Fold Peptide/nickel transport system ATP-binding protein.
Amino acid sequence: MSDMTPVPDDVLLSVNGLKKYFPINHGWLQRQVGEVKAVDDVTFDIKKGETFGLVGESGSGKSTVARLILRAYTLTDGSIRFRRADDSITELGGLDEKQLRPIRSEMQMIFQDPYSSLDPRMRLLDLIGEPLVIQGKLTKDEIRDRVQELLGLVGLRPEYVMRYPHAFSGGQRQRIGIARALALNPSFIAADEAVSALDVSVAAQNINLLQDLQEKFGLTYMFITHDLGMVEHISDRIGVMYVGRMVELGDTAEIFRKPLHPYTEALLSAVPQPDPRRRKEGKRIILKGEIADPANPPSGCAFNPRCPYATDLCRTTIPALREISGRQVRCHHAEELDLTGVGE
Ligand SMILES: Nc1ncnc2c1ncn2[C@@H]1O[C@H](COP(=O)(O)OP(=O)(O)OP(=O)(O)O)[C@@H](O)[C@H]1O
């Protein structure tokens, strides 16, 4: 990774050549018989204060990318450089748990499922205050005050501190998770399918809350989701993943207007369009078959068996990531194809 360029001033997180290969073990002796290339050579930056959307079908490697960034996993290869609160850059890749501890307060995760991610035996005081207790800088009274303040920030009543999570709805539980994530003043929050378990209006309220908090505290977000409609609403830029690789990366509005990768086109064609003026005539691409198995990917471009535009070149040669009109695209035919977006 010696050829990496310095992290630009406006970038909070710089991911380069990231790889995670999980071993496949077999039999009584658990001999390794293969590997799952869950994340394979992924490179992207997230700018300070922006919302970056990571999209793709289930199994494309999105959650693994988030777990690598938050160093819940070790890296197989690559680099993750993070701008700290004091503006210094830290390489997270090789750090051990002790070295990671001071950085953990600056990076947080909000989980998908508001029902299973909160310990039902803990009161909100303990749930939200736990990171503060572990940090050990505040007294008991100060922690209580801070938890009440955090409850207020996420639109919950401060007097709820002594209640248990079961007293709350799914949407409120997610707010409890957000309050907990905010406890240590992070600069970066990764939200894995943050709102998918909720009904649409509750989800929208929580998205609005996250946007308000972003503005208030200058937070940087990475949203991981299948929901392209949501991504269009909240993300400044998006990365589209397919079988462990980033296949398209760029400005959200531009990608929605005119995708350059056939996989992005197919994902966009499935986005419901409530506004009839934006609906293009009859073009809905039904993706054939399933997402490829990262333990046994097809030769050439992993998308080729499902791609309506695939040629012999696509079946034999892995396309390189190329820069085309300010966007990163991994498709041999990106320039020639005239793909359809979702219109103005
Ligand atoms: N701990 C693991 N051991 C082995 N394989 C794994 C492990 N975690 C993930 N994988 C495999 O890696 C690939 C990518 O998984 P990942 O969960 O990152 O995808 P995803 O895009 O986040 O999907 P989802 O939206 O369903 O969470 C999948 O094929 C998955 O089976």
User: Anything to note?
Assistant: DSSP finds ten helices and twelve strands in the chain.
